[in-house]
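User: I'm writing a tutorial on reading structure tokens. Could you give me a worked example: one chain, its sequence, then its tokens, then a sentence or two explaining what the tokens reveal?
Assistant: Sure. Here is the example chain.
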Amino acid sequence: MREGVSRVLMAGDVVEALARGQQSAHPNCSSSWRTFTVGGHNLTDCEAYRQGLTPTHYTCNTTDRTRTDDVILAECRSACSADAACSVMHWQGLKANNFSEDAIGQCFLLHQACFTASKYDTELAPSFCMQTEMCSRAPEPANAPVYTAISVALSLGGSVRRAVGSVRKYERNPILVQDRPWETRLDNGYPNVVPPSGGDPNQAGPTSWQLWYGDCISAPTPGAPGCEKQVLLYANSTDGLAWHKPTLGLYDIGPPHHKENNVVLYGGGLGVTYDAHDPDSSQHRYVGLGRACWASGTCPLDAVRTSSVGVASDSDADLAVSADGLIWHGVATLAWPSPQRYDCHNQVFWDEPLQRYVAVTRDGFSGPVGRTIGITTSPTGALGFDTTAAPLEALYGDEQRQLYSQITFRWHNTFLGIVMVYEAQSGEGRVRCRLAWSNAPESTEWRWVDAEGEAGGLAGAEFVPLGAAGSFDSHICFAAARPIPHAAEERIYCSRPRRLERVPTHTLAQPPRSRPPPCNHRVTTV
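And here are its predicted structure tokens:
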């Protein structure tokens, strides 16, 4: 292809370039070389070995690598810089040379992204150290042509540039409003949307669109002011646009409605995902994560102790499965130590290439960076997580812009995250949806797609922009699930209340037009 000739790229082309960490054919790296982790494992340990320590080696799982002549570390970096296909440099310092970077060692150039890593503990392991680094390529020319795909832009005029694409809001938003007496506060709606067949037309699955969303109600009189309890509500749809709230008969909210409502169970910040990778498990079609009464579901509103934010403190499970998304069975209590907290939109999903479950939650609440994103993966392919340590702090902001929650999903050969950035000190309580990416979910290498400008991406371009002042979606964006392919578009669902918490409640006679989530956004495909 000739330089400067425009064409539309398939999304896979964009992701491959991103995942490799390279910028097309531009051969020069800047002076910035950085180490990184994969799956929570540090791939660089030379400094530790120089100090007399012997940590376990972890190395990238890739066969597309080239060994060069044995060179010092700086020359290995130069070799990667000169190779346009090199995405990662791997150098091994020798014990015989005191692991010195100024002595000859083995040099490898990796030509594939490093998504997973494996332990290297053979009898030779103590005889060398490992230095694994990525380089930062030089910036592209200002006049480089730009090509867009969903939410990432790419240029082939000698370089690659990441950029956030644009969305088109559905002209009939909002598509669901709070119009039931018990829907007094949907400002922490945390929506979860599952399309027919779970999004895979080749799989048997639900025949309708499904939505689970959070509500904040009071006990013992639902509809009264306050937020003493959080519950999970359910709706369904034939087209994903016009939603029906069925009477489920599952949860007694007290008089006068009792069980004539669409409440599924008691709990807050709950993530629900369709999971059909195990065809032999009839009870395991949906997975839920968050502090809730998953197993009993119907625990009385006035009989369960809660925290100050209405989240169940004595829930019967934090991880659950269901055959239909309505009747749940608790799997495990996940009592992660501090700083993990459940008061956010939690998420769990199966990743086929990794053959692991991924859990996304919150780490922290206070301190210099406030709320942060915590991510962990299951130790095996079974549904369960190690709780001996808190999930890895994968991404953080600052005291002014805190990371409320993150919807994480695989996009071809990398991972994207729709991050809810909370402007904690603005006085307006705004939450903006911004886009981040990483080669692996459980990693400290999450980066903002729009990493330029003030705060290095924290104040960058919005993925789903807030509406104009005075509009129903002017204050908050809580994303739901991943972008959902449908016909010739990608749908991005989100909850769009006007204010976060501290909002006056309303009765059914005065439905709060200021907070009617969720909404739906559409992104045209390429």
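What the tokens reveal: The two ends are 19 Å apart (CA to CA). The CA atoms of residues 65 and 110 lie 4 Å apart.
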